[in-house]
């Protein structure tokens, strides 16, 4: 194992450790058995680390430290846990090393290492947030800031956030979420289309107004006029037939009654057409004012 702060091999580091046994955390009067046990644990941790067995190496170094406290062992523990990906424990051991060895020559390097690991640890704690929508291509905002379009994925800081998803022609969706360390969040959203034309029958700017009742009145006037003309012609036909030649009394009476009835109906329809025409004229202006 090569320590980064001293750039020395494990044998050299072992010698440094053994020389330090009489320093921090130990006295010259420390029983030889404790020093021997600490050395044995340390040598085992060294071998295990070089073999890439970092969890076992950390256990051996911890046993060495419990037997005889020494700051160098704390640094090596930090390296083991950094290899294992347990950045929080690695940072803790590096800090303990600096506290136990305040005059360490490699303090600037270790402090730089701690800062780098803290940044990496914070990045790993940020949960991954993924947003998809139907239809896709919706705009995603996080706390009022535009972040992209769906499907969208990114890491966000831990804590509360407001997500807003918008798409032209669809109702916007808003979600308040609480993000926790290391817990990814995936949202699959179904957007609701907006109504195609607001309120039914509502006119859009520039759209001509529809005069429904005006056309109803006009149609009624037209139908009544056609009926009046038709009945008038039929009444005239009956009159001409009655006057054209002599008829039996019953036949003559029938032609007379037919002509008279059709003439009356024609007059009624003519009056109806006139009323409908007047009503249509009034409705034309009335409906156009709204």
From TrEMBL:
Keyword Transmembrane in record: yes
Membrane found in the keyword field: yes
Residues in the signal sequence: 1-28
Superkingdom field: Bacteria
Pfam families associated with the record: PEGA, TPR_16
Domain PEGA as annotated: residue spans: 128-193
TPR repeat ranges per the UniProt record: 71-104
Transmembrane feature ranges: 212-235, 268-286
Keywords, ordered alphabetically: Membrane, Signal, TPR repeat, Transmembrane, Transmembrane helix
Designated name of the protein: PEGA domain-containing protein
């Amino acid at each position: 194992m090569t320590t980064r702060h001293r750039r020395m091999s494990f044998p050299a580091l072992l010698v440094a450790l053994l020389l330090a046994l009489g320093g921090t955390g130990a006295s010259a009067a420390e029983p030889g058995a404790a020093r021997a046990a600490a050395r044995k644990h340390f040598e085992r941790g060294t071998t295990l680390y070089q073999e890439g067995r970092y969890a076992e190496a950390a256990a051996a170094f911890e046993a060495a430290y419990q037997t005889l406290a020494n700051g160098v062992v704390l640094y090596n523990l930090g390296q083991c846990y950094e290899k294992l990906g347990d950045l929080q424990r690695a940072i803790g051991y590096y800090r303990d090393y600096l506290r136990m060895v305040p005059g360490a020559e490699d303090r600037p390097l270790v402090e730089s290492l701690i800062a780098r690991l803290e940044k990496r640890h914070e990045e790993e704690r940020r949960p991954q947030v993924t947003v998809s929508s139907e239809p896709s291509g919706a705009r995603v905002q996080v706390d009022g800031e535009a972040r992209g379009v769906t499907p969208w994925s990114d890491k966000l800081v831990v804590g509360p956030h407001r997500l807003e998803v918008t798409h032209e022609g669809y109702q916007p969706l808003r979600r308040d979420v609480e993000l926790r360390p290391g817990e990814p969040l995936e949202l699959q959203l179904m957007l609701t289309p907006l109504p195609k034309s607001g309120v039914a029958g509502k006119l859009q700017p520039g759209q001509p107004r529809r005069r429904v009742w005006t056309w109803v009145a006009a149609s009624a006037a037209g139908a009544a006029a056609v009926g009046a003309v038709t009945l008038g012609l039929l009444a005239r036909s009956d009159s001409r037939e009655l006057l054209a030649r002599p008829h039996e009394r019953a036949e003559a009476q029938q032609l007379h009654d037919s002509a008279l009835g059709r003439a009356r109906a024609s007059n009624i329809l003519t009056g109806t057409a006139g009323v409908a025409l007047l009503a249509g004229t009034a409705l034309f202006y009335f409906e156009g004012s709204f």
